[in-house]
Amino acid sequence: MEFEYSDTDKWASELSELYSYTEGPEFALNRKCFEDEFSSHVSDKKWTELDAAQHRAHAMRLLDSLEVIVREKRLKVARAILYMTQGTFAECSSEAEVQYWTRYNIFLLLDVGTFSALVELLNMEMDNSAACSSAVRKPAISLADSTDLRVLLNIMYLMVETIQQEDPADKPEWKAMRETFRAELGSPLFNNEPISVTLFGMVTKFCSGHAPHFPMKKVLLLLWKSILFTLGGFEQLQSLKVRKRQELGLPPLPEDSIRVVRSMRAASPPASASDLIEQQQKRARREHKVRALIKQDNLDAFNEKDPYKADDARDDEDDNDDNDNSLETETFPLERDEVMPPPIPHPPSERVSFPKGLPWAPKVSFVGLTERYDTDTVVGLPRPIHESIRTLKQHKYVSIAEIQMAKEEEYQKTPLSGVSTAETHLLFSVFLFPDHQIALLKILLAAAPTSKAKTDSINILADFEYMAQHLVFANCIPLILKFFNQNIMSYITAKNSISVLDFPHCVIHELPELTAESLEAGDNNQFCWRNLFSCINLLRILNKLTKWKHSRTMMLVVFKSAPILKRALKVKQAMMQLYVLKLLKVQTKYLGRQWRKSNMKTMSAIYQKVRHRLNDDWAYGNDLDARPWDFQAEECALRANIERFNSRRYDKSNSNPDFLPVDNCLQSVLGQRVDLPEDFQMNYDLWLEREVFSNPISWEELLQ
């Protein structure tokens, strides 16, 4: 599949993703609201014909009108602003022109302070108890119940998504506004909390059943874009890793993981038992035909006049179909199954190609081990030992996390250490309460394939590393496996969009007569970008939950994840296959020798595509007697460390006052309100005479 993993899809696709097809009639309504407001002040020109000063003046008028008390009037103004963020499409003749005016109008609205006003209105709508109680009593929620919220969230989403899109043609002031807006989104400037915290509150309120009218898709989209904008994406994370390793004095990363993954080619999926049986039947048919031909008396006559030529041509096509199961540039041994006889050897004329090299540099990690012994003195040891030690040291990898854990142990001994107030820490402090994570898991469970009706109640049993442990305790691992326990190819290739109805195509071009052919016109994608993107992200989450955690790896084994993950290998996309193979690699030694023998093609794919750890026995180790409870001490120790970390950095209520930082600013100290005892106030004159007036003070020395 020609899919390149990125933080988001193309900008145009992300804009059209916001709207449901039931919102189509509202485009014309937004236009009418804008034109009514616009014509009352500017009657002889179009919006695209005004100069910058006139644009700004009208934007300020709309912003002032947004603060009116009458709800209907306020909604009408909000729709007019929404039409501006949609590019004033009625005055455009192409989709590119719509995108140009979308960017121009959104930066104009940001400049006049529209986003702050929208956040205030959003908070007001969230606290609308009348709307919440009305929605709870209704048997079914309609689109009209969330009109005000949808309009506000649409504007905010379009602003965040458009502003974060960098364009080389952007003006210098736009670039400065982008960085300022990025800092504001991650700071507690909106209602004393970041905007992402407000949106998480909406998710929690929706999942608790107190606000069923919240448009959750739009909330989640805006939440995703806000976090992505403030914290950065894939590229920013890689740059941050490089810079952090330089600051810590660590050697550079052996390769750029983003480039390696994007350059990898997908492997063919391992053959299933039904595929193997079908292949054997085809070979048996070919052998039967060959034996029938050999029995002919005159082979020369057979060669001149071949009555089976058409059949042979069909056999050649069957051979080509069989070869589709091989790699384009890599070949693996045919996967064997116990019920099948050994395969027939391939003819020597078959072209076999071999990989040029492994994509990843090998590493040596000593996670959980302490180097208490001398690793430098090698006098008297045999030469092979010298070479082994040199190889291990050459590929030894120290991660940033190991350095941070070592520093955390020092901080526990010396608590006088500063706490960062970066956006990441502000957002993480919200997750100290697991309600937000449980709410997101509920939404994921509602979207997972299940035999239960979707109207049934959702129940999840739940009581850094902190988030991962809460997700594990909330049954996130079996939930993700349940998501993949479906026809994953059908899910990824599902057609869930109609090109002719997507924005802005639907407002620029006239809609054709809706037929089966017209609905499929223009949709040439072999897969659904959003579904494939979601599958890769879920696999990455599963990898983060289980990496270097034996108890969680055993959960993969107990929940029989191997056949589910093997079916996911049918998707020929390199990045998705990489994370599936990683999950299979960590549990191979618990699956036993017979499983590895029966899945040699999968083992070969792991060897070729997953990074090697020189001290890892994944390919030959056997630990069939291991059980999940054998590693519970490891999970308990991890939880204790997490609680100490969170208590030291984020729990201000239980902080030791002797370890708190001292305020040395003269203005802030003198500006603090101090409650004095009653007896001190009664004897204040005596205290002044004894402590102030009677003592000589050298003001010059004090000021120095």
From TrEMBL:
Keywords, sorted A to Z: Cytoplasm, Phosphoprotein
GO CC terms: cytosol
Pfam annotation, one family: DUF3402
Compositionally biased spans, kind Low complexity: 265-274
Superkingdom: Eukaryota
Positions of region (Disordered): 265-289, 304-341
Domain Far11/STRP C-terminal: 382-684
Localization, UniProt: Cytoplasm
Function comment: Plays a role in the regulation of cell morphology and cytoskeletal organization. Required in the cortical actin filament dynamics and cell shape. Part of the striatin-interacting phosphatase and kinase (STRIPAK) complexes. STRIPAK complexes have critical roles in protein (de)phosphorylation and are regulators of multiple signaling pathways including Hippo, MAPK, nuclear receptor and cytoskeleton remodeling. Different types of STRIPAK complexes are involved in a variety of biological processes such as cell growth, differentiation, apoptosis, metabolism and immune regulation.
GO biological process, one term: cytoskeleton organization
Family affiliation: Belongs to the STRIP family.
SMART domains: DUF3402, N1221
Name assigned to this protein: Striatin interacting protein 1
Biased composition (Acidic residues): 313-327
Domain called Far11/STRP N-terminal: residue spans: 1-298
